Every structure is written in structure tokens, then in C-alpha cells.
Automatic annotation (TrEMBL):
Residues 2-156 form the Selenoprotein P N-terminal domain. The gene is Selenop. It is found in: Secreted. This is SEPP1 protein. One of its GO terms (cellular component) is extracellular region.
Length: 156
């Protein structure tokens, strides 16, 4: 949960604002007893939802598991469902999925869009392309060619 707080701050500093974060506490008795520790480990910007033992389990309802990340777009549509190991915040999958859900305009103009979203998302794409350029192998030998590569993100 502290890594989620770090990610929230990082994304906000990059201009990704008005994102809702919700942690769903597990229904089990052990998790119920540790709820206050979970709540204390995040800021007030992250909601910690306590399931009632008598209610239908949220994770079962959502076809997921307790360590999954479900990422919804601003219209409330599920864009990504990341399970282990992709949900570990030490990997880039959650962060990248949030950025994609934030920046894509699948349904056109929307009243929920942030006014400066184009500049923010263009900057995120540029940084991602620069990172890819850094890790691409450099051509060697006398037959090296420069290829102008366009990176398009395809999402399913």
C-alpha cells in the first residue's frame, strides 16, 4: 500500500490528476483485524474499502483475486485487469496501464477529460519513446542503417 501511495504521487507530479484509487481489503478475519494498519499506510487520497464479512466478496464479484489491479477509464469501463505477477508495483505494468487508460480517447470527447490532457499525455509518450531508444541495441559493423521507427501502442 505504501508503494501505491508512491505511485499516486509520481503520477500526480506528472500531471495525471483526478484519478480515484481504491484499495479493497480482504474479507478474512485476519485482514479485518489489520484494516487500521492498511488505512494508516496510505494517504487520504486513497480510499480503503472494508468489506463486510456477510456481503458477497468483491473480488469474486469482479472475477479477480485480492492482489489484482482493476483499472477503469474515466467512463467506468474496465480497461485492464492485472493479476500477479503483473500487479507487483515494482514492475511497470500497473503504472503503464494507468497512463494508457488516462490518455486514450476511446469514446471521443468527454466531459471528464482534464483540460491539459493532450500536453501531459504527449509528454508521457515522448518519455516512453526515449526510454525505449536508450535500451535498443545500437547497430554495429559496416552495414549499419538508421531506421526511422514509429512506435505505436496497440491495446486489446
Amino acid at each position: 500500500s505504501t508503494r501505491l501511495e508512491d505511485l499516486r504521487v509520481k503520477l500526480e507530479n506528472e500531471g495525471l490528476v483526478n484519478i480515484s484509487y481504491v484499495v479493497v481489503n480482504h474479507q478474512g478475519a485476519y485482514s479485518q483485524r489489520k484494516f487500521h494498519l492498511l488505512k494508516e499506510s496510505v494517504s487520504d487520497y486513497i480510499t480503503v474499502y472494508q468489506q463486510d464479512e456477510q456481503q458477497a466478496d468483491v473480488w469474486t464479484t469482479l472475477n479477480g483475486n485480492k492482489d489484482d489491479f482493476l483499472i477503469y477509464d474515466r467512463c467506468g469501463r474496465l480497461v485492464y485487469h492485472l493479476g500477479l505477477p503483473y500487479s507487483f508495483l515494482s514492475f511497470p505494468y500497473v503504472e503503464e496501464s494507468i497512463k494508457i487508460a488516462y490518455c486514450e480517447n476511446k469514446c471521443g470527447n468527454c466531459s471528464y477529460m482534464e483540460p491539459d490532457i493532450d500536453g501531459i499525455c504527449e509528454n508521457i509518450t515522448k518519455k516512453a519513446d526515449e526510454k525505449l531508444a536508450e535500451i535498443e541495441p545500437k547497430p554495429t559493423g559496416q552495414h549499419s542503417h538508421h531506421h526511422n521507427q514509429h512506435r505505436h501502442r496497440h491495446h486489446h
